[in-house]
Design goal:
Catalyzes the hydrolysis of 5-hydroxyisourate (HIU) to 2-oxo-4-hydroxy-4-carboxy-5-ureidoimidazoline (OHCU). The protein has one domain: Transthyretin/hydroxyisourate hydrolase domain (Immunoglobulin-like), CATH 2.60.40.180. The protein is built from one helix and ten strands. The longest helix is centred in the middle third of the chain and has 9 residues.
Length: 121
Amino acid sequence: MTDYTVSCHILNSNKGLPLSDISCELYLITDKNNIKIAQQKTNKDGRVPKESWEFVEDHKITHTNTYMIRFQIKSSYYDLINEDTLYPYIDIPFIIKNSTVHHYHIPLLLNNFGYTTYRGS
C-alpha cells in the first residue's frame, strides 16, 4: 500500500493574510457516510502541514478514494472578528488516485462571501 499525504492552507484574499487557528477536518467519503479520519488547526502561516494532522484511530491515507477537508471558517474566524459570512464552513472534496503523485495540497482563498480553491503543489 502506498501512503499519501495531504496539506492545506487558508488565505484571507480581502486582507492578503493567512488565517491561523482555523479548525480543519479531513474526511474519507464513502457511499454510506463521511468518516472523519484527522483534524488539526492551521498554524500561524495558515497551514496544516502534511505531518501535523492528528489522525483518529490510526487512520492513514493509504488507498485511492474521495476525501474532503472541512474548513470551519465561521466558528474559527468570522465569529471571532465579528464579521458576517455566507459560509458556516467550506467543504472541499478531492480524489486521490494511484499515480506518481503522493502528496495533495489543498489551498483555500477566502473572503466573506466567496472562495476559490485549486490543486496546489
